[in-house]
Amino acid sequence: MPRIMVERFVKEHLRADVVVGSELVVNRFGFATGFVDGDIGSISSKVAKLFVNNEPSLGLGRATSSFQFFSICKEQIHPPFISDKNHHDHQLLRPLPVIFHDGRLAMRPTPSTALLILLWMPFGILLSLIRIIIGEMLPLRIMLYLAPLTGCKIVVKGKPPSPISSSNSGVLFVCTHRTLMDPFVLSVVLMRKIPAVTYSLSRLSEILSPIPTVRLTRIKEVDAQKFKQELSKGDLVVCPEGTTCREPFLLRFSGLFAELTDRIVPVAMNNKVGFFHATTASGWKALDPIFFFMNPRPFYEVTFLDQLPAEATCSSGKSPHDVANYVQRILAATLGFECTNFTRKDKYIALAGNDKTVSCTSLETW
Q1: pTM of this prediction?
Q2: Which candidate, 360, 279, 255, places its Cα nearest to that of 105?
Q3: What are the structural domain ranges in the chain?
Q4: Which Gene Ontology molecular-function terms are recorded (predicted)?
Q5: Which among 314, 299, 336 has a CA at the least distance from the CA of 151?
Q6: Cα(225)–Cα(231) distance, rounded to whole angstroms?
Q7: What is the pLDDT of residues 260-301, one digit of tens each?
């Protein structure tokens, strides 16, 4: 692997101080040519220069490919024999978890897998367009039964609340945020259009959305008024994380939703894909639904939890942050995920390549 492709990951998550490897060949115009400069011999000589005065105390790796490196090590360990019993006094640090990552491919692009994906793409694009057209044109009350015929699978757990009557305000569905499809899938399960609160949805996505959307301004007073107006009309869905997370972690929940209503129903959303991730932090987000439906058998699991009791809401004197933390914890427990204190801003800082390391610490509360 070229050094530049692994250096950041190895330093941030494996806690390395120095990374030595081959280099990408760059032409005089500053573009990578696709060739790699450096062989095992030249790389091992670079490693040896790091230890001019002291020999490395321990070498880990495959004997077939690492023998030149092992020749300068005092001790050698080869998989699958790495364990607490045979690495003696050497303490191997636990790798830090990867929480934020980007890119569309959901599978490792080995030669055979890459060929399979390339062969599937023409059929996947056509299948995706068919699925999207069906979702746009047909009523939601039949989509839950029609989805299996198009290769999509939706599993519903728990009991959803009944539609509101004219005498009370709507229910606020508080969902985990896996993809941009979360509010739409919830509407399909409930068989009625539930308006969704959005933070940074593109204008094209709003136009193409089969359900109503409510764009927030991130100005607390203005957004609170929008929440109240929509809840006075009926049910509403919000994803307090503010952005999607692909890994089994939940980002920090905004506490704004807890200030506005006591009729809160947590909903645990989870999905599985085959070839393509349905979300990306960069690029054109309007393509997210297309990539989701390009998967051979996209899968969604929707779990309804009980409405929060009065003693768990702000009406009992709890702060909005406490309510948000509680909802985050019970949703994480339902999905088997881990809570973090990371925000939408932290995600974009990490994916932008900022020196600040934010993707390696997780907390149960914030």
Answers
A1: 0.79
A2: 279
A3: 3-77, 111-351
A4: glycerol-3-phosphate 2-O-acyltransferase activity; phosphatase activity
A5: 299
A6: 10
A7: 899 999 999 999 999 999 888 777 778 889 999 999 999 999
